[in-house]
C-alpha cells in the first residue's frame, strides 16, 4: 500500500487499473469509546467554491443524483468507527476541479479527543491502494482529511490534514454553501399506501447538529505538493458569494435542508377492522407455504431482490457499501451461468446501470442455520472474474466479523479483473428496512407499505431470516468447563465462543438501533496497533480465567456506554451504564436529581457511587435509596466521579434462540435496560 505524508500527492491511475470508481474511508479510534464524527464532501470548481448548494454532501444529503458521490455510512472497527464514501470519478461533472473530503464533530467535541485518524483509498474492487495517517489534529471541530483533484486527464489524491475551527456549518458556508434547517416528514398508515395523508401526521425533524464556531486553523508549511501546485488551506478560500454575485437574474438554488420530506409509518398502527383477533391480514409475501430450506432460500431471495429493485432508497442502502453506483437497478433470480461441464445457478443477480456502464453482483443466499459453502462461493467468484462482474454477495443469518471472513476463497492473482466478496446478514437487511420506514422515510406511500410487507416477512418465524441464532457447538462444553474449572487457556473452543459473542452483540446493536432510529455501535477497546485476531485471543484467555463475557455498546444521544456482562459461573447477566458526575452543584444535589430522573426505573436497579482513587463507593438498590438519597454520599468526603447503574437478570443456558436460550436473554436484557433506565437518562 502506498503511504502518503501530509501535503504529498499521488496519481490514482499509477496504483490500479480500476480507479474509475474508488472508495475513500475515514476512520479513527476513541479512548473513551464514545468519540464520533460525521463525514462531508464538497465538489469545488476552479475558484474553490461549490457551483450551488447541491454540491455539498453530508449525513442528510448522502447521494448525488448522478452517482458521483455516495456516503456509505459508518461501520464499527476495533475501537472506533470507519466512515466510507464511494466516488464514481467518471460521473463527476467536467467543471468540478477538486473534491474535498472532510469530517466534523459536534456538541463541543473536537478532533484532539480522537486517536489514529486515517484516510484510506481503495479501488473499485475494494483493494486498499493509499493510506494517509494523521498525527496531532489540535482542538478543532472540523478537519479536512484530503482532496481528490484533476491534473489534466488524471485524478490525483492529496493528503491535506488541515484543521478547521468553525464546524460543519462554518466549513460549508466558507465554501459557498447556504444552509437551511426547515423540513418535515410525513407518515403513512400501516394498513397500506394512501394518496391522501391526514394533516396531523406531519412532524418536525430535529435541527442540524453542526454549529458555527470561530475562524479556520492556520495553514501548514507542508501544504506544497510535489507537482508544484499548493494545497489550498481553508482560510485561503475566497469569501462566500453574495446573493447577487451572478447579477441577480439567476434563480438561487434551494438551500440544503437538514431533513427531507419523506414518508414513514406511524409508531401506532390504525385500529383494525377485523371482527376478532383470529382474522389475519392479507400479506403480499405469504410464508405459510414454506416447507423446506430450499423453499425458504428461494422465496427470501426473490422477495428481497424484487423490493430492492422497486425502492431505490432501499436498493442503494444495501449495495452502496459494496461499490455499486447510484443508477437503474434490476434484479434476477435463479440465473444459469456456464461453469465447466456443470452450469451454476446462483440464487440471484443484481445489476445497476449508470451512464451506459453495468455493475453486476452474484448473490448466494442461506436461511435458517445453514452455513455458506466454500465451494459454491468459490465457483461464483471464478465465474464473476471470467465474466467481468464486480462482486459476489453472500447473504445468511451469520454475522461477518472484522478480519474473520465467513468463507475462505482463493483469488487468482494472474487475473487483471478483481472481484470483491461481500457479506450481508438478514439482521442487517431488516435493520435497514426498519430505519427507512420507521425513522428516515422513503419516497412515497407505496414504497413505505412495500417495505413494511418485507419486514413482516423477514420477522415471521417461518421465513428462516432471523439473523444470528446459534452460539455454536462450543457453547455447552465451554460453559461446562468453566463451571467445573477444567477449561484451560488456549482451548480453541473459547475462541469460538468469543466470536459468537461478538456476532451476537453486533446483531443486538442492529435490532436496538432499528427500534430507536439511532446509531447503536459496539465499542471494542483494543490496544493501539493490535489486530482483531489478537484482541479476540485475549478475550478468550479472559473468558477462561474469569468465566465472563463482556461487551459495550454506544447509543447515539445517550450518556455513557451501555455495558453487558455474562457471568457463566453464576448464570447472571448484568447490564450497566456509567454516568459522570455533573460539573456544577453539590454532591447531594446530584444524587437527588439522579433519583428523580429514575422515578420510573425498576425498584431493584442497583446504584453505585464511583469515588476517585477507591475501588467503589456506597451502593444500594433504588428502592432503598429513594427515601434517603444522602446514603449515596461517601462518608469520608471523597470526591465523586460518577455513578454506575446496573440491572441483573438470569442468563439463558441454551445455545439457540429459544425463549430459554442465551441469545434471547441477552437481547431482552439490553432492550429492557435501555427502555427502563438509559432512556430516562437521555430525557
The biggest beta sheet reads: 7 strands, antiparallel
Can you count the beta strands? 27
Portion in strands: 25-35%
Q: Which spans of ≥5 residues are poorly predicted at pLDDT below 50? A: 194-253
Q: How helical, in percent, are the residues?
A: 10-25%
Specify the number of helices.
12
Strand order of the largest sheet: 21-22-23-24-27-25-26
Mean pLDDT: 82
- The geometry reads as globular
Q: Give Rg in angstroms.
A: 26 Å
Termini separation:
47 Å
Class inferred from helices and paired strands? alpha+beta
Overview of this protein structure:
This protein is of the alpha+beta class. It has helices spanning 167-174, 293-310, 312-319, 374-387, 426-440, 445-459, 475-483, 492-516, 532-546, 587-597, 622-625, 662-682, and strands at residues 2-4, 9-11, 21-29, 38-44, 56-57, 69-76, 80-88, 98-104, 115-122, 128-133, 142-151, 154-164, 184-187, 203-204, 263-264, 328-333, 348-354, 357-365, 391-396, 420-425, 520-523, 548-555, 562-567, 572-580, 606-611, 619-621, 640-650. The strands form five sheets. It has a seven-stranded antiparallel beta sheet with strand order 21-22-23-24-27-25-26. A six-stranded mixed beta sheet has the order 1-10-9-3-7-6, with no helix packed on it. Strands 2-12-11-8-4-5 form a six-stranded antiparallel beta sheet. Helix 2 runs antiparallel to helix 6. The model is unreliable at 194-253 (pLDDT under 50).
Write the layout of secondary structure elements.
Blueprint: E1 2-4, E2 9-11, E3 21-29, E4 38-44, E5 56-57, E6 69-76, E7 80-88, E8 98-104, E9 115-122, E10 128-133, E11 142-151, E12 154-164, H1 167-174, E13 184-187, E14 203-204, E15 263-264, H2 293-310, H3 312-319, E16 328-333, E17 348-354, E18 357-365, H4 374-387, E19 391-396, E20 420-425, H5 426-440, H6 445-459, H7 475-483, H8 492-516, E21 520-523, H9 532-546, E22 548-555, E23 562-567, E24 572-580, H10 587-597, E25 606-611, E26 619-621, H11 622-625, E27 640-650, H12 662-682
Parallel strand pairs: 1-10, 13-15, 18-19, 19-20
Antiparallel strand pairs: 2-12, 3-7, 3-9, 4-5, 4-8, 6-7, 8-11, 9-10, 11-12, 13-14, 16-17, 17-18, 21-22, 22-23, 23-24, 24-27, 25-26, 25-27
Helix pairs in contact: 2-3, 2-6, 3-5, 5-6, 5-8, 8-9
Amino acid at each position: 500500500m502506498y503511504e502518503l505524508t501530509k501535503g504529498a500527492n499521488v496519481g490514482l491511475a499509477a496504483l490500479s487499473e480500476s480507479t474509475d470508481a474508488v472508495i475513500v474511508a475515514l476512520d479513527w479510534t476513541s479512548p473513551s469509546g464514545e468519540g464520533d464524527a460525521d463525514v462531508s464532501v464538497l465538489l469545488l470548481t476552479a475558484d474553490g467554491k461549490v457551483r450551488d448548494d447541491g454540491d455539498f454532501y453530508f449525513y442528510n444529503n448522502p447521494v448525488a443524483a448522478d452517482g458521483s458521490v455516495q456516503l456509505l455510512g459508518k461501520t464499527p472497527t476495533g475501537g472506533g468507527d470507519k466512515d466510507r464514501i464511494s466516488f464514481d470519478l467518471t460521473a463527476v461533472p467536467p467543471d468540478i476541479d477538486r473534491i474535498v473530503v472532510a469530517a466534523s464533530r459536534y456538541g463541543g467535541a473536537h478532533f484532539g479527543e480522537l486517536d489514529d485518524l486515517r484516510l484510506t483509498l481503495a479501488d473499485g474492487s475494494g483493494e486498499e491502494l493509499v493510506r494517509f495517517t494523521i498525527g496531532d489534529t489540535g482542538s478543532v471541530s472540523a478537519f479536512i482529511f484530503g482532496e481528490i483533484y484533476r491534473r489534466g486527464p488524471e485524478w490525483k489524491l492529496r493528503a491535506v490534514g488541515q484543521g478547521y475551527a468553525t464546524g460543519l456549518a462554518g466549513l460549508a458556508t466558507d465554501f459557498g454553501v447556504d444552509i437551511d434547517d426547515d423540513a418535515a416528514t410525513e407518515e403513512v398508515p400501516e394498513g397500506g399506501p394512501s394518496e391522501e395523508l391526514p394533516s396531523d401526521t406531519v412532524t418536525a425533524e430535529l435541527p442540524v447538529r453542526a454549529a458555527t464556531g470561530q475562524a479556520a486553523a492556520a495553514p501548514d508549511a507542508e501544504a506544497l505538493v510535489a507537482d508544484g501546485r499548493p494545497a489550498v488551506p481553508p482560510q485561503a478560500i475566497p469569501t462566500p458569494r453574495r446573493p447577487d454575485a451572478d447579477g441577480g437574474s439567476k434563480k438561487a438554488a434551494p438551500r440544503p435542508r437538514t431533513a427531507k420530506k419523506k414518508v414513514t409509518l406511524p409508531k401506532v398502527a390504525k385500529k383494525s377492522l377485523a371482527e376478532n383477533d383470529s382474522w389475519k391480514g392479507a400479506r403480499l409475501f405469504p410464508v405459510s407455504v414454506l416447507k423446506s430450506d430450499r423453499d425458504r432460500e428461494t422465496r427470501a431471495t426473490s422477495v428481497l431482490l424484487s423490493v430492492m429493485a422497486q425502492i431505490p432508497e432501499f436498493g442503494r442502502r444495501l449495495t452502496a457499501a459494496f461499490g455499486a453506483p447510484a443508477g437503474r437497478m434490476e434484479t434476477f433470480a435463479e440465473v444459469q451461468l456456464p461453469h465447466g461441464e456443470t452450469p451454476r445457478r446462483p440464487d440471484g443477480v443484481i445489476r445497476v446501470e449508470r451512464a451506459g456502464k453495468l455493475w453486476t453482483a452474484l448473490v448466494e443466499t442461506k436461511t435458517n442455520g445453514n452455513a455458506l459453502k466454500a465451494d459454491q462461493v468459490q465457483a461464483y467468484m471464478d465465474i464473476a472474474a471470467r465474466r467481468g462482474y464486480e462482486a459476489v454477495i453472500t447473504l445468511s443469518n451469520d454475522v461477518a466479523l472484522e478480519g474473520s471472513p465467513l468463507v475462505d476463497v482463493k483469488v487468482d492473482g494472474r487475473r487483471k479483473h478483481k472481484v470483491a466478496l461481500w457479506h450481508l446478514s438478514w439482521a442487517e437487511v431488516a435493520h435497514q428496512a426498519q430505519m427507512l420506514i420507521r425513522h428516515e422515510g422513503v419516497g412515497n406511500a407505496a414504497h413505505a407499505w412495500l417495505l413494511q410487507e418485507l419486514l413482516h416477512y423477514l420477522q415471521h418465524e417461518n421465513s428462516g431470516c432471523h439473523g444470528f441464532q446459534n452460539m455454536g457447538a462450543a457453547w455447552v462444553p465451554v460453559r461446562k468447563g468453566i463451571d467445573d474449572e477444567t477449561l484451560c487457556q488456549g482451548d480453541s473452543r473459547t475462541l469460538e465462543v468469543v466470536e459468537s459473542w461478538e456476532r451476537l452483540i453486533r446483531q443486538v446493536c442492529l435490532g436496538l438501533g432499528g427500534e430507536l432510529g439511532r446509531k447503536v455501535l459496539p465499542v471494542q477497546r483494543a490496544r493501539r496497533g493490535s489486530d482483531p485476531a489478537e484482541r479476540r485471543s485475549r478475550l478468550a484467555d479472559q473468558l477462561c480465567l474469569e468465566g465472563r463475557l463482556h461487551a459495550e455498546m454506544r447509543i447515539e444521544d445517550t450518556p455513557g456506554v451501555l455495558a453487558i456482562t455474562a457471568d457463566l459461573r453464576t448464570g447472571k447477566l448484568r447490564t450497566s451504564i456509567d454516568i459522570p458526575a455533573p460539573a456544577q452543584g453539590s454532591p447531594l444535589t446530584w444524587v437527588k436529581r439522579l433519583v428523580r430522573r429514575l422515578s420510573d426505573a425498576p425498584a431493584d436497579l442497583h446504584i453505585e457511587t464511583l469515588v476517585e482513587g477507591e475501588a467503589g463507593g456506597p451502593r444500594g438498590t433504588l428502592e432503598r435509596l429513594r427515601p434517603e438519597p444522602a446514603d449515596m454520599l461517601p462518608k469520608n468526603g471523597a470526591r465523586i466521579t460518577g455513578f454506575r447503574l446496573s440491572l441483573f437478570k438470569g442468563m439463558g443456558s441454551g445455545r439457540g434462540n429459544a425463549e430459554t436460550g442465551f441469545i434471547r436473554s441477552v437481547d431482552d436484557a439490553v432492550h429492557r435496560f435501555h427502555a427502563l433506565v438509559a432512556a430516562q437518562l437521555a430525557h
